[in-house]
């Protein structure tokens, strides 16, 4: 196997740095925070034009209904943006699923809005690495593949969802459905600053406790009040006992809302918790233990708690078809002169969801960049073309039969 067979196809990507840079800059300037439905709709239109031009047919998939707990403890409905589904060769037997997200962590009013190229050539702007640059990498790799002599032999489905940054709750069904129909998944989260890819990924769960007591005036009727903040404190201490019991399983009490004034015994307290674990059995253990503590904990007389949420990103393990796919990525990288290494991470992304649906996947095929989720986010434009070539070569090696298709995780 050598990339020289594909030199001509790969060379189509040469010279695209400026095009990809300009498109990434333009998309970065469109605010598409997860709650900014208008900005997300603009990104949907932009990507529809670009992917249609590359040979795909576009569909818009409405978000699944979802609820959240407000900081007052009320169940509220959340409406997310539409996901884009682009399909090419839908009748082909072998299928590749490429996924990315239109949303960023920067809300509409964020001070971080305007992309710039710094004097050293680094691109700096919201979403340039996570992952508007990554969508450009995916787009150019897919376009070059579809126009190659193998372009009609493999089905390519692209999902660009609109709520990845908040856990893909409204797009999880779409991800799972398409993942079940594919052979491999390519996900365009940024590579680490040194070019390393993420290997195994921890799983994650979000839990919200709504603790309720009874309000009372702190001066006149203190004795009849049932303090929900104290109940929440007892519950948190009980849950915190789970930390350190299992290696690599952590529970973070992240956000707490409660109380209205110092002279009122608070009747409501909302506690938000994030759980991470590196092995499926540990994630399942934490999940069931949180439910047990919720049932058993003594919150104080007259104080109750409701639990909302659960595991939303299952653990992604480096095994089976995922390991086979990583070895193929490494081989392709070697042919292109890109050193490929991978490291486990406590972070998670849609690659976790694809693995849960049985799909071997590599989830950091986007641009090289860093400081994501901060106003220092950056990307290296010189990484765009090599990363697009990497994806293109992976697709060509599989389509041509020069590399075997990895086994599905549920095979
Ligand atoms: Zn991302």
TrEMBL record:
For this UniProt record, the keywords arranged alphabetically read as follows: Hydrolase, Metal-binding, Zinc
Every copy of the Peptidase M20 dimerisation domain together lies at: 200-297
Q: Which cofactor does it need?
A: Zn(2+)
Asked if the record carries the keyword Zinc, the reply is yes
Superkingdom of origin? Bacteria
InterPro entries this protein is in?
ArgE/DapE_CS (IPR001261), Bact_exopeptidase_dim_dom (IPR036264), Pept_M20_glutamate_carboxypep (IPR017150), Peptidase_M20 (IPR002933), Peptidase_M20_dimer (IPR011650), Peptidase_M20A (IPR050072)
User: In the record, what terms sit under GO molecular function?
Assistant: hydrolase activity; metal ion binding
Q: Does the keyword Zinc apply?
A: yes
Per its UniProt record, what PROSITE patterns does this chain match? ARGE_DAPE_CPG2_1
Q: Which residues form the active site?
A: 103, 164 (proton acceptor)
Give one Pfam family. Answer: M20_dimer
State what protein this is by name.
Hydrolase
Say which species the protein is native to: Parvularcula mediterranea
